[in-house]
Amino acid sequence: MTPIRILVVEDEPVNRALLRAVLGSTLRASLGPIELREAADLADARRLIRDWAPDVLILDVRLPDGSGLELADDLPPPGSPGRPRIVIMSASVLPSDRRAAEAVGSDAFLGKPFMPRELIAILERLVHPGPATEDPA
Amino acid sequence: MSDPVVIVIEVLFGLLFAWALWMALRTRSVLARDVTLVFLPLASLLGVSLVAEVIGAVQGSAEEAVLPVWVSAVVIVLLLLQPVFSLKLVADLRTVPRWLLPSTLGAVALSAILFLGSQPDPPAVILLAAVGVFFLGQALAAAYLALEAGRRTGGARIRLYLAAAATAAIGLALFVSVTGNLVGVESTVSAVGIRLLALLAAVGFWIAFLPPRLLRDVWLATSAFGHSERLMAAAPTASPAELWADLARTSHDLTGAGAVVLVADDAALRVVAVHELTLAEAGPYPLDELAGLAAATARDPVSLDLCRRSGRGFVSTVPIERDGQPIGAVFLLRPHASLFDADDEALVSRLATRSAYLVQRRQILAEEQRLADQLRVTVDALEAASAAKSDFLASMSHELRTPLNAIIGFSELMVADSDGTDSLTVPREWVDHIRNGGSHLVSLINDVLDLAKIEAGRLELVKVPVDVGRAVAESVAGLRPLADRKSQTIEIDAPSALIEVDSGRLRQILYNLLSNAIKYTGEAGVIRVEARTELGEAHIAVIDSGVGISIEDQAHVFEEFRQVGDPQTRVAGTGLGLALTRRLVEAHGGRIGVESEPGVGSTFTVSLPIGRPEEATSENGRSPITAPGGGARILIIEDDPSSVRLLQAYLADGGYRFSVAADGEIGLRMALADPPEAILLDILLPGMDGWEVLRRLKSEPAIRDVPVVIITVVDERNVGLALGAVDYFVKPIEREALLARLDRHTFLTKVRQRSVDVLAIDDDPAALEMIDATLAPYGFAVHRAASGTEGLHMVSAVHPDLVICDLLMPGVDGFEVVGRLHADPATTGIPILVLTGHELTASEKARLNGRVLGVVDKGDSAALGLRDWLTRVIPELAAPRAD
């Protein structure tokens, strides 16, 4: 089984550590094998998207060299073969922030602070669409 | 010859002359007199002719009677004087060359002598010369009048042209008459023509100088209408000043006078417009003199009644009225009399009133506009404030969620990773993340609360004299470990200087600026702190050699949640530190500024007003806040030598003794071996950390009651208090605050360990009785002193743990007792409670500041007040034994 490639784009080291921990914990068992890479800014993220072709992006919005939404907007449109699924993850959770995330064609919005199970549920839905979304817990 | 036409003309002319004469006599004005003189020659000629005819008719002769020779001589002289009279009138109205009148008079006199001397049959040459002088004079007068008419407008112009034409007609009439005689064509036609010309001239003068009311009203209405229209057209956009200027110009156009408009503003009349007030026109009325004149009569515009004619010129005052109330005046100034004073003034008055209403309308419109603008500004400001509030809330939400993410995420993970048992093993890193998130959250909330307090105006500054140099040194000492971690050097150039500030807030300001400098300065960088006092201000500069801030960003560094600069180099922080710092500085009435060059470093400069710290300074010049430690023993558990040195210095200041343990194990052993009266405990210790030390201290029955004060850089106050610490200080420590708290705690220890000796000093026996009755149930031994002197004596014998002292006593009063106890090294440590019915003034409070534990009001419920104070200061104090 090919591992799911997940790219975390997040400038805050603590949050990257948290995502690492969540995706390394027993919670993620239902996702099957995953491969995780991290980027701390947009430039790194673009390079990794090009070279590594991740399946899922977990994308922060406020990044040192711009907005994560810009990056999402630049990707091929939803449904295109090269486009990863996008989870926007932000501490800006006003309705306008959520709408802005939808507008760039993201697949899910995860507001900080988030529950690890929430993230796993979202990822499950994105990588195993269909009826096979059973909560392992 | 008795042509009825001629007779009618002569009668009419006579009537006109009589009218003019009557006016001259009635008004006694120079002008009316001169007008009558202009009529005189023709009137006398026609009158004499009429008289001759009447006499002839009476004698039954068809011919005129021959009158005596002197009569015709007088008439001839008067006729020859006609040009002189005409020019005299002209000179009344305008400036003419000075030589004109005398030379005309000379020429007339010469021609009269020649003419009369050659009677009864003068040669043609003499006759022609006389006529020539006459005609020339009249023509000159007519020309002058026409010129003057050309400078005027409206009715005045018509009247002056009429006067010019009449003057010319008189000349022509005489010319025709004399030349007719000369060529011998004396006919009825010419006689009628001459008389007709004379009559026309008379009518012309009449209309010009003494016009009938109907005609005057028509002219007035026409002029007023024209100017009003112009004013109205200008009004919608014109400012009051422009409207007044227009009135001044119009007044000038109508009257030919220099015009000055004065309007009452508050109590004073002010010159609001001036038109054509040149020297030529205003004559000897310079503007400042006029303004002085106006000021002299300013209180009541009605009384503005300047001399209508001074020796130096002519001034007319026209009141400006609105709603029947005078609000000002127009001054009309000229060097010559006006033909038309009354009419001019009536017209100017109408226009002035119209202007006054327009100005009022304009002012109302302007006021409306101003209110509308003000409203707009207010609405804009409210909108901006509302937007700023929304932005702040959005940022706040974002900033709160970020640390919460770590706290919630990692703690959830811990739960998820648990294997069902009570204990779980998780990576140390996770706990650190949670703890750091919590600390960050707390500092964020503290900053926000501080900001909110300032916003709501509830920030209370307790200003005390603070040594800037010392505050800087202490703040630097507190942050030194952070700088050491990055191998940074901190240079201090801050000489000792007292300023009056809120000591805690000054330290907060210094802490924020210093910690920023350390954060943004790289490894092995240099940070410099300078302090200077000059011109009533203390300037503190924190200079770093960090990343610097671009010019655009400098404008925003003091805004909430604006971490500026290259995002790559963003460092942890609440984004509120500088915003809060600015508010704190401003709350002190100071300023904060930043200068920076990217890549070189930044300088933050704080300027604070010095205040008047000397007033509250004690006599020996040191900071008056000295704690009465009373030689109590303090155990310091702290590994960092610089922190130990600082604490030792503080404790020595406060009159404490101390011992030091460099780690927790040693500290515990020392505390058990010889229980101190209080323990100062650091958290970050080698080996066993401060939390564990605290836990163990509290679990040892022998020392569990010894108060523990935590002193650390870890800001987790609630954890510390929950574990049993009595106090929690985050470095940098404030000396005064630490000592004040220690005093309380050590006093409490003494109370617990043995009976407490209290010395009560009061000249009122009832008060002493009350103190004893109140304190005895707590197990306090109360010693009574009935005066300040006795109290001071007893101190050395009793060695009291507490002195309770009245302030107002005969002889040595309470202030002196406090001062002496404080000054004597043997007694400086004794805590003092002031019990007084006297309301303390600010300077009295300053005298007591730092030398007493508290002040209790000696009112009706003094006993209750004393008990309240005791239980407030020492809540742990055992309840009084039941009687």
Overview in brief:
Chain A is an alpha/beta fold. Helices cover 37% and strands 23% of the residues of chain A. By secondary structure, chain B is of the alpha/beta class.
Descriptive report:
The complex is a heterodimer of chains A (137) and B (883). Chain A is an alpha/beta fold. Helix content of chain A is 37%, strand content 23%. Chain A contains five helices and seven strands; from the N terminus they run βαβαβββαβαβα. Chain A has a five-stranded parallel beta sheet with strand order 2-1-3-6-7, sandwiched between helices. A two-stranded antiparallel sheet of chain A has the order 4-5. The longest helix of chain A has 12 residues, at 13-24. Chain A is globular and about 35 Å long. Helices cover 56% and strands 15% of the residues of chain B.
Distance between the termini of chain A: 23 Å
Structural class of chain B: alpha/beta
Order of helices and strands of chain A: EHEHEEEHEHEH
Mean pLDDT of chain A: 87
N/C terminus separation of chain B: 150 Å
Report the average pLDDT across residues of chain B: 78
Spans where pLDDT lies below 50 across 5 or more residues of chain B: 279-285, 297-312, 565-570, 615-629
Number of helices of chain B: 27
How is the main sheet of chain A built? 5 strands, parallel
Strand order of the largest sheet of chain B: 2-1-5-4-3
For the largest interface, the chains and their residue counts are:
A-B, 28 and 26 residues
Helix content of chain B: 55-70%
Determine the fraction of residues in helical runs of chain A and give it as a percent range. 25-40%
